[in-house]
Amino acid sequence: MTRVSTLGSYNSALLDLMASQRRLNDANEKVSTERAATDLGGFGRGAEALTAMKSTHARITGFKDTADTVAARLETQALAFDRVIDGAKSARQAIADALAAGRLDGLMAELQNQFQSVQDGLNTKHQGQYLFAGGRVDNAPLDQMTLEEMAAQPSVAGLFNNDQLKQSSRIDEGSWIQSGFLASEMGTELYGIFRDIQQFHEATALEGSPTPAMQQFLTDQLTRLDQARDSIISMGANNGAMQNRVDSVVEAQEKQLLSLEQLTKGKTHVDPLRAVTELQLAQMAIQASAQVVSQLRDVSLLNYLR
Q1: Domain-located, residue 150
Q2: Can you count the helices (H) and strands (E) in the chain?
Q3: pLDDT tens digits for 142-188?
Q4: 151, 202 Cβ separation under 8 angstroms
Q5: What integer pLDDT is reported at residue 269 of this predicted model?
Q6: CA–CA gap between residue 171 and residue 234 (Å, rounded)
Q7: 111 shares a domain with 10
Q8: 149 and 78, same structural domain?
Q9: Residues 82-117 as b or e (16 or more Cβ within 10 Å = b)
Q10: Whole-angstrom distance, CA of residue 5 vs CA of residue 301
């Protein structure tokens, strides 16, 4: 004899309906978020791998942010180097032109302009901080002054306010880069030349037609200016080499981050078409479960006794 239990069937159908409802909610969540789960607990055994990938992503992102900061600093330094180099070049050209013309009128005024250009280049700021001040980034490495004021100082070395600490940054695992330069190493030679010219001018005015002594002195300064400019050009080339290195590191980091993001997406995201299919199946299942519950409501033993 077959036993008929309306209560047992009804409870079973309700459990199926509740399970179908949970599957429908999960499918809705996947379709709306396109993610397989909303927290690490939902990824089961894959949670540990996801945690490792996220940690690696955060670490590489931190290095990339540092590298981007260094790249911006190097770019500003390149502009500062150009300004100092142009100042040295223009000062040399002014002397050469004066000697070629046989007249020194206006030479010192032009040299004052180029001295100011060099001074401004060495006092260049980046994001509110002095680039060539070493660790004293809040203090200008050089006080603003004229040629006369500079020549009155007891020594060239005493003109520079920077310390000897050069900027260093970690841009990758095990990779450090010393991107800083000092105003004193860049400008000491140039300042010495400008100082000597000004002191010579104060002793023997560099005006009118040059005497043989003036010609010899100024010719010697042309050679010194060439040497000083070449030295700064060499530093600028080092700055450019570091720019290339940092650009290569940033490019590699961007590729690493893209690869990690794709791997993470492969583990955390769902196929939209598959998610929609699961949603449709869940909707059909819940409709079927609801229909069974509805039918059980009308079940009675009288139907079997008739």
Answers
A1: yes
A2: 8, 4
A3: 999 999 999 999 999 999 999 999 999 998 888 899 999 999 999 99
A4: yes
A5: 52
A6: 23
A7: no
A8: yes
A9: ebbbebbebbbebbeebbeeeebeebbebbbebbeb
A10: 9
